[in-house]
């Protein structure tokens, strides 16, 4: 079993392990061997759920996801933990973290390897996030269903051969594989951030010092418009305002808008197809509630040509943590000594980042008045 498979198995075991297992069922020798094996493991760390009651409450009471359905996504058809319970899908976004997908595509598992990021989420943002998601059903913040952290010492944790923390989040690309099987056009996706900031990979020597592969990891640009009716546009702007206010209040910067676009089916008798009637829009967890249409299930453009989904991702970089402080100092010195390029998206202030982020979001929306 390779590194990726061992990491995946650790995650799955933390999700599906039986909370009601009897204590003391192992004999002392078996327990000692298990602890010995865990300590010397390079990749298969013992993970525990962090604040499990809070996430379970969100899933059950606010997102209508039953425990049985949630756990089933991490098991095979026989209800067992298998090697293919999670599938590695590499680096899907700008953050550089490792991603896994459940076999049914409903959930993604993302590693949070940096201490500054997982400690920020655990110590500063977790409680406000849980409260916000419970009171803002149409929030665009990605729905985090579980937060896992390494438990106990191990060689793999000391030498960082495996990530010590992971989040489980819903997958707004859910349904893509089924759509492809049905012969539908492939879905388009963008990882959007304000591009007016200083990006060394792009802006130093015109990008000549960096490979194209590295530059491809920078934030995307959406060279089009999302055509929305006024009430839909005002609704998403209201959600974005509330979500980014929460992030700014807790010093988060560098988050992104993950945007998905699908070609809408064109029924002969309907000039404006309803996303709720489209086979592209799931009506089962993790997409609801609220009921469709929503930005998790899909919002139809005003011209009926496309269905859009969107979610705010990667809100773990906080200005008050040690690593962000060091990066801010380095960029400040760079601007003073070498060349004045301005701040990066990871070194600007939370309020300034929020302002540019909201301006970017408003800039890709065009309002159609009926």
UniProtKB/TrEMBL annotation:
<keyword id="KW-0547">Nucleotide-binding</keyword>
<dbReference type="GO" id="GO:0005524">
    <property type="term" value="F:ATP binding"/>
</dbReference>
<keyword id="KW-0808">Transferase</keyword>
<keyword id="KW-0472">Membrane</keyword>
<dbReference type="InterPro" id="IPR002498">
    <property type="entry name" value="PInositol-4-P-4/5-kinase_core"/>
</dbReference>
<dbReference type="InterPro" id="IPR023610">
    <property type="entry name" value="PInositol-4/5-P-5/4-kinase"/>
</dbReference>
<dbReference type="GO" id="GO:0005886">
    <property type="term" value="C:plasma membrane"/>
</dbReference>
<feature type="transmembrane region" description="Helical">
    <location>
        <begin position="29"/>
        <end position="47"/>
    </location>
</feature>
<keyword id="KW-0812">Transmembrane</keyword>
<dbReference type="GO" id="GO:0046854">
    <property type="term" value="P:phosphatidylinositol phosphate biosynthetic process"/>
</dbReference>
<keyword id="KW-0067">ATP-binding</keyword>
<dbReference type="InterPro" id="IPR027483">
    <property type="entry name" value="PInositol-4-P-4/5-kinase_C_sf"/>
</dbReference>
<keyword id="KW-1133">Transmembrane helix</keyword>
<keyword id="KW-0418">Kinase</keyword>
<feature type="domain" description="PIPK">
    <location>
        <begin position="1"/>
        <end position="365"/>
    </location>
</feature>
<feature type="compositionally biased region" description="Low complexity">
    <location>
        <begin position="268"/>
        <end position="279"/>
    </location>
</feature>
<dbReference type="Pfam" id="PF01504">
    <property type="entry name" value="PIP5K"/>
</dbReference>
<dbReference type="GO" id="GO:0016308">
    <property type="term" value="F:1-phosphatidylinositol-4-phosphate 5-kinase activity"/>
</dbReference>
<feature type="region of interest" description="Disordered">
    <location>
        <begin position="268"/>
        <end position="295"/>
    </location>
</feature>
<protein>
    <recommendedName>
        <fullName>PIPK domain-containing protein</fullName>
    </recommendedName>
</protein>
<feature type="compositionally biased region" description="Pro residues">
    <location>
        <begin position="283"/>
        <end position="293"/>
    </location>
</feature>
<dbReference type="InterPro" id="IPR027484">
    <property type="entry name" value="PInositol-4-P-5-kinase_N"/>
</dbReference>
């Amino acid at each position: 079993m390779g590194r990726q498979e061992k990491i995946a198995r650790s995650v799955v075991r933390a999700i599906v392990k039986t909370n009601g297992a009897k204590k003391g069922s192992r004999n002392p020798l078996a327990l000692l061997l298990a602890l010995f094996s865990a300590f010397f493991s390079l990749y298969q760390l013992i993970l525990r759920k962090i604040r499990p009651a809070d996430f379970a409450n969100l899933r059950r009471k606010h997102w209508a996801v039953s425990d049985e359905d949630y756990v089933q996504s991490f098991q095979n058809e026989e209800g067992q933990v298998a090697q293919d319970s999670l599938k590695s899908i590499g680096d899907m976004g700008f953050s550089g973290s490792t991603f896994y997908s459940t076999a049914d595509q409903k959930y993604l598992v993302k590693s949070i390897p940096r201490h500054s990021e997982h400690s920020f989420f655990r110590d500063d943002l977790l409680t406000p996030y849980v409260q916000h998601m419970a009171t803002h059903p149409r929030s665009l913040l990605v729905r985090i269903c579980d937060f896992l952290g390494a438990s106990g010492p191990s060689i793999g944790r000391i030498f960082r051969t495996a990530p010590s923390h992971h989040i489980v989040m819903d997958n707004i690309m859910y349904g893509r594989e089924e759509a492809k099987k049905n012969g539908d056009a492939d879905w388009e996706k963008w990882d959007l951030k304000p591009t007016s900031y200083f990006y060394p990979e792009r802006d130093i020597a015109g990008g000549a010092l960096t490979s194209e592969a590295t530059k491809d990891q920078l934030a995307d640009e959406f060279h089009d418009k999302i055509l929305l009716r006024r009430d839909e546009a005002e609704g998403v702007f209201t959600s974005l305002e509330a979500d980014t206010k929460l992030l700014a209040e807790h010093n988060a910067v560098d988050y992104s808008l993950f945007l998905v676009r699908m070609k809408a089916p064109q029924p002969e008798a309907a000039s404006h197809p309803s996303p709720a009637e489209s086979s592209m829009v799931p009506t089962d967890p993790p997409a609801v509630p609220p009921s469709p249409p929503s930005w998790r299930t899909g919002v139809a453009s005003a011209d009926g040509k496309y269905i859009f989904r969107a979610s705010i991702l990667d809100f773990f970089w906080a200005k008050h943590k040690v690593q962000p402080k060091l990066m801010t100092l380095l960029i400040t010195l760079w601007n003073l000594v070498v060349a004045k390029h301005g701040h990066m998206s990871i070194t600007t202030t939370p309020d300034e980042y929020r302002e540019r982020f909201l301006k970017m979001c408003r800039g890709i929306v065009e309002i159609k008045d009926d």
